[in-house]
Structures are given as C-alpha cells and as structure tokens.
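Lecture 7 notes: from sequence to structure.
We start with the chain below.
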Amino acid sequence: MTHAKATLLLPARIRFPGGSLPAPVASALGRADRITGAAGESAQLRRHFQVQPDDWSAAALTRQVDAGDAAGSLWLRADPANVMPDMQGARLMASAESLRLEPADAAALLPALQPLFAGFGFQLDAPSPSRWYLRLPDDTPLPAFTAPDAALGDDLFEHLPEGDNGRQWRALLTEAQVVLHQHPWNQQRVAEGRRAVNSLWFWGAGRLPQSVRTGHAQVRSRDALLQGLAAMAGVRIDGDQTVDALVDLRQLRSLEQLTRDAIAPLLDAIGRGELRELQLDFEDGTCYRIHRGQRWRFWKKPLAALHDA
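Predicted structure tokens for the same chain:
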C-alpha cells in the first residue's frame, strides 16, 4: 500500500459545526497544498470523473445501477417527494432516499400514477422504492430540470421547469400531486407519523454517457450516482481499501467524526509510509493535498478552524 493514495469526498465545510481542529489535523492542513475549484455536487464529481458527452444524466446512471437496462433509452427521474404549503406557496421538504420508502410504498402509489404518464407515452416504474423513473420516447423535448439538492427547502415554484417545454411538466406535476393527495396510502403514512408522498420531483434527464474515465482504482460509496459513474469507468466498488480509492463521506456532519475517524488514521498511515497521499475534496470547492514531504514545512501555521481561509 506504499504507493496508494486516498481521496475523501466531503460535504461543504459549512456543513460541519464550528470547533477547533485536533493538533495533528490542524498542522497537516496548515502545511497542505490548498486548491480552490468550482463549488457544487456536479463540479465536485467532475473533478474525479471525465464523462463523454459532458452533459451526463443522473437518471440514466442510477437507472443502470438499479435495473441494468438504461442503455438505449431516454430517462428522467420522477422521485417521490414531500412538499409543504406555506404563505408563499409550497416548499420541497424531502425526496427520494430521505423519505425512507419501503417496497410497499411504491407498490401502493405507482399504480395510481402510471395511467397519468402512460397517456403521454411515458413509462413510470420504480426498481428502487426511493428512486422512480420515467422511460421517455426518444424524441421527447425536455426543459432544464433542477436537482433536488438545489431546491430543498426552497419555494417549489422557483425551481419548476420553464418555457413551452416546461408547461407540460408543470401540468403533469400538478395532476400527480392531486392523485397523491387523494391516495389513502398517504393518509395512512401521515397517521403513522411519516411524511406523505404528496408530490414528485423531475430531474436528471438524459441517456447513459458513451464513456467514463477516472484516475481512481476504487470507489467506496452508497450513493447510486457515484456507483453508476464508477461502474461505467470499470473500477472496483467497495471491498477492502487496498488501492487508490475515492471514499464518499458526504453524509458526515460531525467535525469530530471527520477528524478522529476519517482524517487522523490516514495521517498516521502517511507517517508510517503506508499511504503516499491524502486528498480532501469539499463540495464548496476547497481541496487539500497532504503528503509526507510537507512535514518539513515547519514555518506554516496550523489551521485554526476548518472554515479558515
């Protein structure tokens, strides 16, 4: 493992509550090479995967993971969602995995929605209870859709598709909301203290990319999109971390857990010569590159806090 390196894929630094860094981590980050890139999930993934054509589809990539039949078709995610009305309109509160749906939820709700979409030639199904898909005719004109992470907590209407192409999808969304609102299964979910599936979220339209390349030999992640990119790049997914690995830790929100359980052991491995390099890639575009030779940069001050410039 002497020549191996590890890259941690991390959320934006603002996601971690304030607090001081442990001395070894503060020293390592103070001496590290710091690089600033573009912010956002898409930009972060593009730092690690080269995809052709460049406008790759999240729907097609996750469909390939979930069902293995994405090739040759045009896909759109139509994820189950929860919206909450307020004085200004409605807000997107949860979608897909955050709703923690079971197979019974999809089995109950999909049959009520499928005729609505079938009337337009769209096939709705759910190989995963939390990820729902529309298979679209090849000539379907599509507007620009917003990823759910970008709309979460916002006014729903600020993120609906615009223009003539968007009009059909806005109408479909309204009709789907009516069907879901009236469905007795949602009444049961609410009575059990769970969020209603009272809307859908359209996003990720497109086809499988022609090619995906990455410099990593292994990807460790539970995220379907990242798994799809890794599979198309032909690299190992999960397993023992014995090669150059991209490790997805974007779910972390504890600074202590990040520094104690993730960064500190890898710094120790660098010190022992077992790891050549550690890279920290934050979603806000800040990246740190750490290697053993930086221990001689004794004039560099420790980083007082993760959010320091």
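Points to note: The mean pLDDT is 92. DSSP finds nine helices and 14 strands in the chain.
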